[in-house]
Amino acid sequence: MAGTTFLRGERVELQPIERDDAAFLAGLVNDPRVRRHLGAADPLNRIQEREWIESLDDTEGYHFLIAADGSPVGSIGLHEPNEIWGTIEIGYMIDPDCWGQGYATDAVSQACRYAFAERRFEKVFACVYETNPASHRVLKKAGFVEEGRLRDEAFVEGERVDLFRYGLLADDWFEQ
């Protein structure tokens, strides 16, 4: 599964997602420990993941496999760019066996570098459930600022939860 490195951070490499990554990604998105933070309720198989991979193009954003030491540990994407406003949403998932190793923070930093320095977006934002304290920490470490809280916005594992929005401005990122 070792692919071509597109962006290199201190701990991870971001690689283009390839067809061969479908099994890893299907396993990741179906893992209950990951799925509860994504808002994904439907199971996905390798064929569906492969179809998603084959549908990727610049109009939907930019998607990467996160690799550490040549092995996949997660994925990250910059989704649904708003070219008029200059904003884009970031989302990521890490294999639970690799949680707590700094991979998400490094991947978020590299994806933001790409968004600001190469794609010239003005703002990257993320939405996080209140039940995901690890993602709150990742975003804060990467320089994001909490911008708002939507009360009982999401339905996660049978209960209503608040959704937090975080944002990082290009000017703030360049000053870091």
Please give a structural write-up:
By secondary structure, the chain is of the alpha+beta class. Helices cover 31% and strands 36% of the residues. A hairpin with a 4-residue loop joins strand 4 and strand 5. Helix 1 crosses helix 3. The longest helix has 16 residues. The chain is globular, with a radius of gyration of 15 Å. The termini are far apart. 33% of the residues are buried.
Radius of gyration, in angstroms, nearest whole number: 15 Å
Fraction in helix: 25-40%
Instruction: Name the poorly predicted regions.
Output: none
> What's the number of extended β-strand segments?
8
Between the first and last Cα atoms, what is the distance in angstroms?
33 Å
The share of residues in extended strands comes to 35-45%
* Shape summary: globular
Quote the average pLDDT: 91
Largest sheet: 8 strands, mixed
Structural class: alpha+beta
Q: Write out the strand line-up for the largest beta sheet, numbering strands in chain order.
A: 1-2-3-4-5-6-8-7
